[in-house]
Design goal:
The structure is a homodimer of 268-residue chains.
Chain A (H helix, E strand, L loop, with lengths): L1 E5 L5 H9 L4 E5 L2 H9 L5 E8 L3 E2 L1 H9 L3 E9 L3 E4 L10 E4 L1 H5 L2 H6 L4 E4 L3 H10 L5 E5 L1 H7 L2 E4 L9 E8 L10 E7 L6 H10 L5 E9 L2 E11 L5 H13 L2 E8 L3
Parallel strand pairs in A: 1-2, 1-3, 7-8, 7-9
Antiparallel strand pairs in A: 3-4, 3-11, 5-11, 6-9, 6-10, 12-14, 12-15, 13-14
Helix pairs in contact in A: 6-7, 8-9
């Protein structure tokens, strides 16, 4: 199975993809949009994207693309995020002046940079991309900050392991397919919906779930692109494709202005 | 009045600060945390921070800090975001190879980079910081992407104006004070609250507002730091400090696990 990921080989997306599809052949993409394009054009069988991090919050560009494109969430996976300082073989930690990584990862290793004032946090487009860069260029004063999978892929050495400030750092990934296919044991549904801009509209929408004792595990609003100060809601609820969930979605379609089922899948 | 901002002089935060407090003396801070520290320690009278962009979504680090720290929102302001390509005097657009800016700003100028493949989008910690850098270093192959205020502050030349993809690009800023002071005409309230992790808990919380026909202009969930997969809700409603709003907040305090009033201020 060929799977597109957002990020380089060795990234957390790569690791999450292999955890969900162990035999996957990986197609790395620099841009999120490319990942969805490849899936749309049938160049890959699936795509793996990060959707939410317990510290940094939602990956908003992916929420927007889930709403825009015709894709279906088939699986979710929670990956524990461990950041490591990785450099070319032979490089010494004492000689480091720069550490390249994605801005979110740099922000999650603040304490490390306080402890190592000689090393400058340097934003890079990707975590594993930073490791690839310092090793390809054989830099002796620079390292990358990434998951240990990046050290494996690029033959780097881990100079410091687990340098993230907060160990309660998890990223939720989705495996996307082009067409809906609901796996056995699917007990969680992700939807997006919009309500009229009137008092109580969201309350009326939530009644659909509360009235049926359906548990919302997440609800989040996102600005609607091109409609300043209007919002789309992304919600997850803990039911699969059963009669009760179907009735809830039918009723929601009546009270909301728009409803889209993004996926039905087994809860991680 | 002395006001701390997150970002450099010439940044959008600087512009927003002057629009809310025309006579402000500005203290620029690299880190969001510093802004709150200065306010807390009484080094400044106020602080101006971006909280939400209509395209990029919430500035999550600021939502977290509003919850953590003892501050009070006194004003909000909506700034129209216009991105400009700014370089040192004498630099020609045809010679440019790099454009420095904040990753969010670069992402909002994608079309410009498609039209100008010779110019590489290069992440920098701040929009105005990129302009400061190219002018201080007198780079002849690099520009910054920032608001026109940055050209003014650093004596740069605007080589291309309004290069953002989407003109419906606004950022909402808050003016924060250490102590609560509610301005005349205050008709909007921002709160944070958490509900029990049981079905219908959010619905019960929203009943407090819907039952009183109080309009929620925004509701957004954020992961709770240190509690993976639990959420805090940030909500705005269109009432000031009147009897109805007070009754709603009292009732919310009964049904929610935590309620914090972040500010009461005139709607922009």
């Amino acid at each position: 199975m060929k799977v597109a990921i957002q990020g380089e080989l060795g990234s957390f997306s790569h690791e999450a993809a292999l955890r969900m599809v162990p035999s996957a052949r990986i197609l790395p993409c620099a841009q999120s949009r490319e990942v969805f394009d490849h899936l749309d054009e049938g160049n890959v069988h699936g795509a793996v994207i990060p959707i939410e991090n317990t510290l940094a919050g939602s990956v908003t560009v992916h929420a927007d693309l889930l709403l825009e494109r015709t894709v279906f969430i088939q699986r979710e996976f929670h990956l524990r995020i461990v950041h490591n300082l990785i450099a070319a073989p032979g490089v010494k930690k004492a000689n480091l002046r720069r550490a390249f990584s994605h801005p979110v990862a740099l922000d999650q290793c603040r304490e490390f940079f306080v402890q190592h004032p000689a090393i400058q946090a340097t934003p890079f487009y990707d975590t594993a991309g930073g490791v690839k860069h310092v090793i390809a260029q054989n830099l002796n004063d620079s390292a990358g900050i990434a998951g240990r999978h990046a050290a494996l892929v690029y033959h780097g050495r881990i100079l410091a392991a687990g340098i993230e400030d907060d160990k309660r750092n998890f990223t939720r990934f989705f495996l996307l397919r082009k067409r809906p296919r609901i796996l056995p044991g699917a007990n969680k549904t992700s939807i997006a919906f919009a309500v009229k801009n009137v008092p109580g509209a969201l309350y009326d929408a939530l009644r659909v779930f509360a009235g049926r004792r359906i548990s919302l595990s997440k609800i989040e609003s996102r600005p609607m692109r091109g409609h300043p100060w209007q919002y789309v809601f992304f919600a997850d609820f803990l039911r699969g494709q059963d009669k009760l969930a179907r009735a809830a979605l039918l009723e929601l379609a009546n009270v909301a202005e728009m409803v889209k089922v993004l996926g039905i899948y087994p809860a991680a």
